[in-house]
Amino acid sequence: MINVLRPNLIQTNEKFMMEALKEARKAALKNEVPVGAVVVKNNKVISRGHNLTEKKQSALVHAEMAAISKATKKLKSWRLIDCDLYVTLEPCGMCAGAIVLSRVENLFYGAADPKAGVVESIAQALDNPKLNHRVKVTGGILKEECSRTLSEFFKALRGKNV
């Protein structure tokens, strides 16, 4: 279920997406695909994560997975009740599953991922009424900046390979 942004939430959502973009830039500096995420509880960032797939040589180290893992350790609970996740790119299937299983309240994402995004692009995985937990979703927050971060990274990468 995709939410429509309420005007009073726009500034807050942009503020936290900017924090996720900071994480995406950290990934880019490490030659990782620049995706960043933050978990927010009570209007405060409680964890951060960015892609480390290449460094760790693991498909499991996506930004969302890192941020969720750190948040569960901080809260000493696998349930992220009353927590929101901000991520710069629409989650893949693995990350969407982790979002549901960890009981994230709200997912906010920036750019759509037409090749692997399962929130709205190639599937609506979080909108299944059979799930035992429903996540509220709002997409398109700072989507131009999130998209540009990815585009510039891949443009620079292609330039190095020429």
Beta-strand proportion: 15-25%
* Portion of residues within helices: 40-55%
Please provide the count of β strands: 5
The whole-angstrom Rg is 15 Å
Q: What composes the largest sheet?
A: 5 strands, mixed
Note poorly predicted spans.
none
> Per the principal axes of the C-alpha atoms, what is the gross shape?
globular
Query: For the largest beta sheet, what order do the strands appear in spatially?
Result: 2-1-3-4-5
Q: What structural class do you assign from the helix and strand content?
A: alpha/beta
Task: Give helix and strand order, one letter per element, not per position.
Answer: HEEHHEHEEH
The overall average pLDDT, rounded, is 92
Distance between the termini: 42 Å
Per DSSP, the total helix count is: 5
Structure notes:
With 162 residues, this protein is of the alpha/beta class. The chain has helices at 7-29, 53-56, 63-75, 93-101, 143-160, and strands at 36-41, 44-50, 83-89, 106-111, 136-139. The protein has a five-stranded mixed beta sheet. Helix 1 packs parallel to helix 5. The chain is globular and about 45 Å long. The termini are far apart. The mean pLDDT is 92.
Quick take:
With 162 residues, the chain is an alpha/beta fold.
Describe the structure using short key phrases.
globular, single chain, alpha/beta, 162 residues
What order do the helices and strands come in, and which of them pair?
Blueprint (H helix, E strand, L loop, with lengths): L6 H23 L6 E6 L2 E7 L2 H4 L6 H13 L7 E7 L3 H9 L4 E6 L24 E4 L3 H18 L2
Parallel strand pairs: 3-4, 4-5
Antiparallel strand pairs: 1-2, 1-3
